[in-house]
Amino acid sequence: MKNAVMLYDSDCPMCKLYTNSFVQCGLLDANGRVPYAHQPVEVAALVNQDRARNEIALVDLTHKKVWYGLDSLVQLLFGRFPFLIHLIHFPLLWYPLKALYKLISYNRRVIAPRADGAEGDCAPDLHRGWRLGFIVTAEVVLVLLILKFWREHWLMSYFQIKPIFTLMLAIHAFQFVVMLSYVKILFKVNLLNYAGNLTVTGLCGALLLFPVAYLVGPDSWIRSIWFLMVYCFMLWDHRRRDKIMKVDITATGIWVLYRVFLLLCFLGWKFLIVDHIL
């Protein structure tokens, strides 16, 4: 699109990646991507600044027109083909795509966190609905991803526990109760932000474990080594996010202790219930 500007969040890796791709593909001019914090005066005069923080804005300087969010991406990608725009706006396709876009856009600062408050900060509003929707969706996806891995893990065989969806979901839900209760008592932190960051750490771990469940046999030592590496990564990511939210290392200690607590619960199940009652 000629003589057009797309405003993007310069602190969002995803935003930088796809807007740069638009330039490389010729969909935008070389100067057609501009950080929200450095938008020219003529662009700022046309844009709803609050909305542009939540949904990426595409500004047509020739016709003085602005599109936001998914509309801006569709206009840029398919503007030359109006029939495709009409096709994408078919309700059964449009509403799920729009919900997915907002789920990511409103939560991009928990997906890729940074300290807020800089001049011209493009941080989206904290929308409770989209944050809770993100947490619930991500937790369901997380459990589905790791279910096969844990069903075949030697620890589950030893404890004679068969991981099922509801059990794994309950374990993760109780983690939220423990962690959020702790940070609520000791730290001035937004609980929805903290819960979002906690969810992303778990989801990253699940994504790393998922391929191993299908590519490596359940008895292979590679699984154990890979699991240890993923756990170390999650520990590092949890601490990194806590630092950004100004939460001290004790919260990471609670995160570790919760997993020790689970191990003790499984040991209790094995020696008190399985071996003596069942």
Provide an overview of this structure.
Helix 1 (13-24) links the parallel strand 1 (4-8) and strand 2 (33-35). The chain has a 4-stranded mixed beta sheet with strand order 2-1-3-4. The mean pLDDT is 90. The chain is mainly alpha-helical. 66% of the residues lie in helices and 6% in strands. It has helices spanning 13-24, 41-44, 49-54, 70-78, 82-88, 91-105, 108-111, 128-151, 154-159, 165-186, 191-215, 221-244, 249-274; strands spanning 4-8, 33-35, 57-60, 65-68. The chain contains 13 helices and 4 strands. It has 2 domains: 4-108, no CATH class; 128-274, no CATH class. The longest helix is centred in the C-terminal third of the chain and has 26 residues, at 249-274.
* Total number of strands: 4
Mass-distribution shape: elongated
Secondary-structure class: mainly alpha
Mean of residue pLDDT values: 90
Secondary-structure element string: EHEHHEEHHHHHHHHHH
**How large is the radius of gyration?**
23 Å
Distance between the termini: 69 Å
Summarize the main sheet.
4 strands, mixed
Uncertain segments are none
SS field, number of helical segments? 13
- Please, how many domains? 2
Order of strands across the biggest sheet?
A: 2-1-3-4
Q: Could you estimate the helical fraction of the residues in percent?
A: 55-70%
Beta fraction of the residues?
A: 5-15%
